[in-house]
Amino acid sequence: MSTQNPTSLKVGMIQAHFWILAFLLVSCKSAPIEVPLELEDQLVLGRKLTSEGRFDDAEDILEDARSLSTDQKIIAQATFLLARNDFQREEYTDSLARYKKFVRDNPFSPLSPQVEEGIYQIALACLEGKATGFLGLPVSTSEAVGVLEYLRETFSRGHRSADVLRLLGQHYFDDRYYEEALLEYEALAEDHPESEWRPVAEFRIALCFLLQCRGPEYDLETLRRARFAFGQYLANNPEGSQRDQANSAIEVVNRMVEERAFKIGPFYELRNEFRGALLSYQEAVAAYPQSDQSERAKARIQALTPVVQLIEAEERANDPIASRAQEKGRK
Q1: H-assigned helices in 175-293
Q2: Given CA atoms 269, 271, 274, 278 in this order, what sign does their dihedral have?
Q3: How many CA atoms lie within 13 A of 53 on its CB side?
Q4: How far is it, in rounded angstroms, from Cα 133 to Cα 139?
Q5: Which of 43, 220, 261, 328 is the most exposed place for a label (fewest CB within 10 A)?
């Protein structure tokens, strides 16, 4: 029976302890050691994870920071970063909800311009059909317009205000809601005179007036406003890209106003209001002596003059007081 040398036994035990320690050291080095992060560091990490496309991890980190903090500044930053994270993964509805919460809770935040930009980009995504809602269906145009209207009301002096007014005006104009489009374009031209969209707004203002007209017999004042607005566009933008169209539109308006002037007389004649008809023909001929309709109007003046004189003579005969007053006026 052999016996083991005590010295070799001790060496073997030392070697075994060494390998066990080495294994433990290697294991500790390869496994992550979770150390609680400061809340501000979590915000930095969340932003980094978003930029790397790790959206779920970013949301976990940022939600943790937001829920644990009692510092309103950190809560606001976390909410803002969560909204951006949702936008980056194209969850536009969730992103908008977070941005709106941010605005409600932080109305005077220095992050407001970035929030405005974020919501504006959501509006563009909705208009381009990128955003989806219930059951994955595209967000409707009316919902996109709702986002733009929210921007207009919430950031009326924001850096995207002119762009928002232009998009709203374009939407209403394309849908033939000319009164609504007019309001948006007027606000754009008035509130943002230095905007690149001002010339577009001025031309569209004139078009809105013109396109609202039902015809020269109804809308003389609207026609005059359209003519004035086209003139304003030309005065403010002598080299504007729409100058030829504006000049052509003024010619059209002038013809419509002229046409209306010569239609008033027949209208009065149909109602047997001969004095009104005579006066209307006289005014039309004075305003448009070169008109093709001028000769006909002159003929009607000749025909109506004795009729009106006869009516006035009968009135004087039936009203002696009025007759004496007229005679006194002549003297």
Answers
A1: 178-191, 198-212, 220-236, 243-270, 274-287
A2: negative
A3: 0
A4: 6
A5: 328
User: At which residue do the structure tokens 């001002």 appear?
Assistant: 198
CA distances from 317 to 54, 273, 299, 304 (A): 99, 20, 28, 20
DSSP state letter for 135: G
In a domain, 287, yes or no: yes
Specify the 3-state DSSP secondary structure of 219. Answer: coil
Q: Is residue 204 part of a domain?
A: no
Decide if 133 contacts 139 (C-beta within 8 A): yes
Residue 318 lies in a domain: yes
CB 265 within 8 A of CB 302: no
Token reading at 273: 């209001």
Task: Write out the residue range of the structural domain in which residue 292 sits.
Answer: 272-331
Q: Does 214 reside within a domain?
A: no
Task: Read off the tokens for 200.
Answer: 């577009």
pLDDT, average across residues 61-65: 94
The pLDDT confidence band at residue 221, using thresholds 50, 70 and 90, is confident
**Three-state secondary structure readout of 53-89:** CCHHHHHHHHHHHHHHCCCHHHHHHHHHHHHHHHHHC
Residue 132 pairs in a beta bridge with: 138
Cβ–Cβ under 8 Å, residues 180 and 164: no
- The residue assigned the tokens 């003297």 is 331
Q: Which of 179, 186, 184 is nearest to 151 (CA)?
A: 184
Q: Is 221 exposed, middle or buried (0-12, 13-18, 19+ CB in 10 A)?
A: exposed
Cα separation, 100 vs 105, in Å, equals: 9
Entry pTM: 0.74
CA distance 122 to 279: 60
Q: How far, in Å, CA of 260 to CA of 215, rounded?
A: 9
Tally the domains of the chain: 1
pLDDT of 65-95, one tens digit each? 999 999 999 999 999 999 999 999 999 999 9
Extract the tokens encoding 326. 């007229």
The backbone torsions φ and ψ at residue 108, rounded to the nearest 5 degrees and listed phi first, read -120, 30
3-state secondary structure of 132: strand
